[in-house]
Amino acid sequence: MRNVRFFGNVPATKSRYGSHYGEKIFEYRGERYREWIPWRSKLSAMLVKGHEIDLKGNEKILYLGAASGTTISHLADIVDEGILYAVEYSAKPFKKLLELAKIRENIIPIFHDASKPWEYSGIVEKVDLIYQDISQKNQVEILKLNSHFFLKDRGRILMMVKAKSIDSTAEDEEIFRRVLEELSKSFDILLTDSLEPFHKGHIFVYGRKV
Amino acid sequence: MLKLRYNLWFGELGEVLEVSKDLRKSFEGAKNPTPLPFNVSELGLKVFGKDYYGLLRKIAIEVSEEKVEKELRSDDKYVVALVKALEEIEEAMNNLKEKKEELEEVRETEILENFSGSISNLERLKERIEEEIEVVMQRISPNLVEIAGAKIGAKLIEKFGSLENLAKAPASKIQIVGAEKSLYKAIARIKRGKEAKIPKHGIIFTHPFIRGLPKNKRGKMARFLASKISIAAKIDLFRGELEEGLYDSVKKRFEELRRL
Lengths: 210, 260
Description:
Chain A is an alpha/beta fold. Chain A is built from six helices and eleven strands. Chain A starts with a strand and ends with a strand. Chain B is mainly alpha-helical. Among the domains of chain B are: 54 residues, Fibrillarin homologue (S-adenosyl-L-methionine-dependent methyltransferases, 2-Layer Sandwich), CATH 3.30.2150; 120 residues, Orthogonal Bundle (Serum Albumin, Chain A, Domain 1), CATH 1.10.246.90. Chain B is 71% helix and 3% strand. Chain B contains twelve helices and three strands. In chain B, α4 packs across α5 and α4 packs across α6. Chain B is extended.
């Protein structure tokens, strides 16, 4: 993927910025890299498991559940000519995210509840990709709602699903099956896989708006 | 005919675009009930040129920084107030139900319907407050919610006065908080040289992992749960992000005790 290089089994993103969450910074052939450990980031885990999503570097991305910005800091390295709208509603991690947004010119921090996209509807533009990593029961509904507000036609979604947050009693496989069934009403599923062993009980789903 | 108006972060679009004189204010008011039928950035780029994203980012940072600071200062006070309100409502509901039954025994009267109406109004209010507690707790204390549930977590915060106080409290206190009355009674009996049962759990007693165990194992579970709640509160206070694995350890302990 663009601006991503593997060093052994661990990816790193090419970056001119410093460390955001304690990740290692190193040089390779005159370029600076930030180590991207799969245990810390679901997107990294997805890459380590051999999957990729197509990013040219100038995409407009809406990121739901940015938390303290671990993954988004690497995504900002990848789409270095694009724009990332980072939505997070939890105050403490958001403060850390703000530190990142103050340094990175392509991150726009939005302190709002992702389940209420109308509240930021006059801020976020139409985007190429919605990335979602929120552990909430109704995360599929939230994704659909945001896709309705902001995703371009044929735009893509990348969703990280944690079985336990959707239903703590059912079997993981059953929960994932239900999520995929629900998603496939609005999206073509392009790719999906488990994120084990890096993230227990998680899968990712990559799809395209129909 | 209804004139369409769109609230954009840099102004209002009706028949013409009125660019905002106070961008922070218009940023906060950029809400629209339905998706915009155009792309806000295309319009914005026409107005501001290549400065569009730089300006948007600057305003976004300024506005959210102020909001986040304000919320950090008041969020757990909000939870405390909600829990207090909830307890009052539950008590009022119980009283009303009791009075209604007393009336029913004496006479069939129309007033009974008014009673039922008030009770169901309170029931709705109660549900609404519980939903709000769930939302706020998820935001300020995701780990506490994960292992104790929103309601127990909120009650603990209320009892200790703030998330910070809860995080600083010893686990032994967390374990029995809410059962002070029987604790002091037991201590008083012991001081008098008599036998007494010391309570093993208070607020956390309603947790399914404790109630789901036979009586002789509840004490062990309560002690373990309280220690994990203490850790959860500390993570919530200092980091505020969900810690994977915390819930699994609690569940594992529950399964172990159940099998024993």
